[in-house]
Amino acid sequence: MSLAGSTEAPSIARSTRAPRRAAAAGLLLAGAAAIFWFGLGMPRGLLMSEDIRSRVWPWAGVCAPREIVAPALSDPVWQFIPWLELARTELGSGRLPLWNPHQEGGVPLLGNGQSALGSPLNWPVLLWGAARGWNLSLLLRLLLAATGAYLGLRDLGRSGAGAILGAAAFA
Fold first, then answer.
1. pTM of the predicted model, to two decimals?
2. Distance of CA 122 to CAs 46, 110, 112, 167, Å?
3. What is the pLDDT of residues 46-89, one digit of tens each?
4. Within a 13 Å sphere around the CA of 139, how many CA atoms are in the beta-carbon half?
5. Residue 87 to residues 31, 46, 62, 82: CA-CA distances in angstroms?
6. Residue 108 DSSP SS3
7. What is the per-residue pLDDT across 27-47, written as a single tens digit (0 to 9) for each?
8. In 24, 37, 100, 110, which residue has its Cα 20 to 30 A from 165's Cα atom?
9. Which residues pair with 137 in a beta bridge?
């Protein structure tokens, strides 16, 4: 009798976990989408450092120059976007983006960990360009971080509400 009772309880608990996890994922997705689509204090358009973007090609001619206040936020402008745009150009020309001839005497592009062309989180930029794909890439990163934190906290035995709060704080 006690064996039958012990085997039923975990199966019932497992059957209720999936809807709860789906509801938590939906809540995190709705929160992230609200931040990205409704603004909530964030700038409209491409989410990058405006001060650095205003001084670097191709945005320098479009944006009014600003004083650089946050030089630590320069990586997307000076590193990630140019490499992803180079890879996108190569893919659009029917070539694999294996090599970056514009850096030093030429360096690997596809195998470069910094450009991370194999990461699915960068694929929206490769598909739609920086203007449309960068924000989607950032949203995917945010959702992946929140989902991983939520599942990790639940695995540690935290309550559902606590795991959602921890995932939102982490992301």
1. 0.64
2. 15, 12, 13, 22
3. 556 666 666 665 666 666 666 666 666 667 777 788 888 889 99
4. 19
5. 32, 19, 23, 9
6. strand
7. 777 776 666 665 544 445 555
8. 37
9. none
